Structure formats: structure tokens, C-alpha cells
């Protein structure tokens, strides 16, 4: 039985139990297992009436919703390849991906998205709205057509990569990739929940069009979980506590904001609450290092009894078993912060090409600063230049219409991730950075920028981003975005540089108030820096700071 049949069986078994919940300021919208099945059948009837055949592509361009989920399942159940795209991405970028995959149908969430596509691509395939699919009278389907028949090697999705240094590539995933991954995620979640009976309660705010987010959605449907969907990012702090989830998927950026928000709120409050918080956290750190004193034990007892539980409940409710974090490395400081509060942080590492996941922390055995061991059935090792290479049933079929790119990434059965890493004696991996991001100074020194950028950000709370420069130069420089002053940046750099070898010292910088964003074209759809484009756009400013330094 395919992964999709497993999900349909679970939906049928759930019957009147709520599986999906849309969170809105005006109220909640629920979908039971039975209601979701009926919506899927309605969408399948619509697709069949449009004449879509097995292997055709159907673009799904909309924000998260119950209808998005029903449409996604219907497309796959019809044997059509779903192409989920990011609703916030610029229209020209969306059109470029659509032209690449040549869809037979485009399904949009609203008129604004449809109009933007039509304006940028008048010759596009038929573009319909989710309202057209679910607002019309259900269409009768052929007898016996209600059961999805998906073979292991059938492609089910094309998910476009971020495209940090070039146009995005379509990653083709098949039913076998999904089946293996859903088995692995369910095993880890069983361990996290200690095989507890009843529904997992899961909160979710990340777009379903991203591979990791999609895997979580399918895992929840397969497990019969209650998945509560955020529909307004500004409401995340309120919803986390009110939903009181067992776990939820995060990106490092949100966890770092949560940490800073707690620090700022307690600093503003001051008094004994701030003193107890600071002393309890310092005591926890000293205990972890084996240096705790008698006074530390008293402060830690107070922290565990009063301070930390109050912070946990206000921030994430009273049921949280773990925060799950992926998409980028989480800073050690942030992971230790949550651990000191008694909140387990489980890291996941993977790429779209690995069906989102290569490694996952084992609940109760996470090693701070690392992303866990390889999941079952997956082989990982280091190649040339300490590049992580992977093989197993999670590896993608190939890039859509890009045989040369596929051959470059898949060599002798191994997928070359482009990430540098290392593994400890227990098999836990640490991600150092992207190989293509390496800066090579004129002296020949190779420097991974990410660790230095993260270190600066940790000491500059008001900074939004830091991007290191220095390819072919005599020293490193940086672009710093956010509301920071030159004096603040210089103070941090002076302190950092004192403890670094000369080639890792950042000796010049310039400031930019406006952060890099998806809207200004300097971040990818999932929030990663477009380093090549940043370097090109700010070429004049970069040249100027190097010229000033030489003149000085």
C-alpha cells in the first residue's frame, strides 16, 4: 500500500475527529477526516473533468489552508505531479518555474495571484482559483476511481529549490521517497510522544510548499494528528501558547527571536524576576560545565520551580515536548537557552533533494550544536573537502529537465550536498557551512562565513543580517543590516578579532538599515541569503570600504 493510500485509510478511520484547524482572528475553521476526504473527492472530480492525465503537472500556488491540503492530496491521487509554489515569491520568479515544468493547470489561492501570473505570462496554461474547485457542484467520478493508485517509482511532486546563486531547479520526488521519509518521521515522533495514545497536537506556520513543511503535514495526516494552521504570522506569539502544542516545526530565525523577546521582556521588567532569571540561567550553564557552586544550586532550584515554568507556559503553553528545528543551523547559544528552560530542541538536517531530511535528533539524546545521526536506511559520509555526501531511498529522482545538473549532483549513487560537515564518535553530525559560500582570501586561506556571521549576530541584538565578503581580498569585511550604530558594530568586532587569527578578523564593514528580504529580492523563498546577488548589488559599497582601508 502506498503512502497516499495509508493517508486515505487514516482519514477514513478518523471519521468525525478533527484533523486540521485553521486559526483566524475571527474564529477557527475545522476539517474532520471525513470532511477532508469529501473535499479531496470533489477536487479529484474537478481535475478529471479538466482532462488531466497521469504525469501531467499541476501548480498549486496558495497560502496554507485546509483547501490547500485537499487539493494537494487530490492532485497526487489522480496520478498528476503536484508543483507547490510559494505565494509570496515574486511573480517573474514564479513564472520562470512554471515555464520550466510546463503545467497543464495552475491552481491559485486568490485573484491577486492569478492576475500576477497572467500579467507576467499571458500564454500560461489555464489558471483557476481554489474557489472554482471547491465552490462548484461536486462532479461525479468514474466508478472505482476513488482509490489512489500510486506506484513506488511514480513521481508525485516537483519542488523547486531556493536558487541562492542561480535559477531554481525542480527537484523530482517519487512515492518511494515519500514512503520512506514518512516512516522515519513517524518513528521519531513515536519516540518523542513515548507511543502515547490519542492525537498529537501540532502547531504549524511554515508554508507547505517547502519540503520539510510538506513532510510534516503528510506525517500529521498519516498519524491522525490535530494540525493547527497559522494564517497570520503576526499572531504566532499568541497562538503558540493558546494552542499548547506537543511539538511544532521551526526555523532558527523564530527561535532566536523568541529568545531575544524573553531577554528583552525580563530586562524591561527588572527587579527580582530579572535577577532570578539571570542567576538561574548562569547556574544551569555552570552545572552543565561541571562548575556549579552551592549558591548555583539554590538559584537553579528557584529557576526550575518558578521562573522557567512560567516562561515556558507563557511562551508555548503547558504541553510542549519539543521544538523541532530545521532549514538552517541553529546557533548553540539559542539551543542552550531553550534547554536551560527545560525545552527540548530537536534539530533536523536535509535538503529538498533528500526529501527534506538526512539526520534527525533522537528525542532525549540530542547533542547541542549538532543535528543528530543519519535516519534509518540512509548512508552519509564525507567526500572531498569534507563535503557531506548521501545515498539511500530518500534521494530524489533528479532535476526536472536538467540531466547535466542531475549528473553533477548524483555521482556513483551518492548525492553531493554541497554542505561541509563533521561527525562525532556517536554518529551525530555538525554542519559547518555551504562549500560554495567559502571565502578564499588573497592569502589562500579558506573561510566558512556562517560561523563568523552567527557570532556577530549573537552579540548585536539589533542587527538583522550579517554577510561576510572577502573573496580574493586581503582581509574580511561585512555588510550589517538593521538598526545598529557604527560604534556598536566596531565594539563587537574589536572584541571578536582579539581572539581570532589574522585571516578570520573582520576589519571593515558598512551598514544598511533595510534588511535583506524576499520582497527586495535578496533572500530566497525560504529565507536564505542570495550571496552572489548581494555582492553584485552592493559592489560599489564593497569596493569603497576596501579602497578606504587601503588608503588608511
Secondary structure topology:
Blueprint (H helix, E strand, L loop, with lengths): L2 H12 L3 E7 L2 E6 H17 L7 E5 L4 H12 L3 E5 L5 H11 L3 E4 L2 H10 L6 E3 H6 L19 E6 L9 E5 H19 L7 E4 L6 H13 L2 E5 L5 H8 L3 E4 L1 H18 L1 H18 L5 H23 L5 E4 L6 H9 L4 E5 L9 E2 L18 E4 L4 E5 L6 E2 L3 H7 E2 L2 E10 L5 E6 L4 E2 L5 E2 L1 H11 L3 E7 L6 E7 L3 H12 L8 E7 L18 H7 L1 H13 L1
Helix pairs in contact: 1-2, 1-8, 2-3, 4-5, 7-8, 9-12, 11-12
How is this structure best described in words?
With 552 residues, this protein is of the alpha/beta class. It has three domains: 218 residues, Rossmann fold (3-Layer(aba) Sandwich), CATH 3.40.50.12780; 182 residues, 3-Layer(aba) Sandwich (Rossmann fold), CATH 3.40.50.12780; 114 residues, GMP Synthetase, Chain A, domain 3. 41% of the residues lie in helices and 22% in strands. It has 18 helices and 25 strands. The strands form six sheets. The protein has an eight-stranded mixed beta sheet, sandwiched between helices. A hairpin with a 2-residue loop joins strand 1 and strand 2. Helix 1 crosses helix 2. It is globular. The N and C termini lie far apart (70 Å).
